[in-house]
Write a structure and sequence with these properties.
CATH topology: HIT family, subunit A
Strand order of the largest sheet: 1-2-3-5-4
Helix content: 25-40%
Oligomer: single chain
Bound molecules: guanosine-5'-monophosphate, zinc ion
Order of helices and strands: HEEEHHEEH
Distance between the termini: 25 Å
Number of helices: 4
CATH architecture: 2-Layer Sandwich
Number of domains: 1
Shape: globular
């Protein structure tokens, strides 16, 4: 299994650093974030070390992601939150500070302190279809 001895999440998987565990199976681990954006902020990770999600084998991604519905329902029931965000940051430019793939499950409630800046834009004529073609060409 790919592990990085310098990675904090690999050290959690190896039992060298404690965590407040929510679930664990052969390939996935979930635990509470140590610095929560809201009470119940959970992380779901593959046990194997991959830096960004595009590097993961799709079968492994599926085996990790299958836990999200039950985990989200359990966090909602336990916290009483009204909604939640699932965030997955890739690379420092996208606010990834721990270089081991992780999904944030962040409980949300009206008036909470977690705000997005969502600067929605527009495509110039023709650009949207050209971009879609380029993306489709690069899909397996
Ligand atoms: P990122 O910005 O990389 O997407 O988020 C990394 C998350 O990991 C942060 O929310 C941070 O609080 C959490 N985190 C970092 N180190 C630890 C740790 O040792 N234990 C736990 N439980 N969470 C951690
Ligand atoms: Zn790691």
């Amino acid at each position: 299994m790919r592990q990085d001895p310098d990675c904090i999440f690999c050290r959690i998987v190896a039992g060298q650093v404690p965590c407040t565990e929510l679930l664990s199976d052969d390939v996935a681990l979930s635990f509470l974030d140590i610095a929560p954006l809201a009470q119940g902020h959970a992380l779901l990770i593959p046990k194997e070390h991959y830096q960004t999600i595009d590097q993961m084998p799709p079968e492994l991604a599926a085996a990790v992601l299958k836990h999200l519905p039950a985990l989200a329902a359990a966090v909602q029931k336990a916290t009483g939150c009204e909604g939640f965000n699932i965030l997955q940051n890739n690379a420092r430019v996208a606010h990834q500070f721990v270089p081991h793939v992780h999904f944030h499950l962040i409980p949300r409630s009206a008036g909470d302190e977690f705000h997005f800046n969502w600067p929605a834009g527009m495509y110039p004529a023709g650009r949207m279809e050209r971009l879609a073609q380029a993306i489709r060409k690069n899909l397996p």
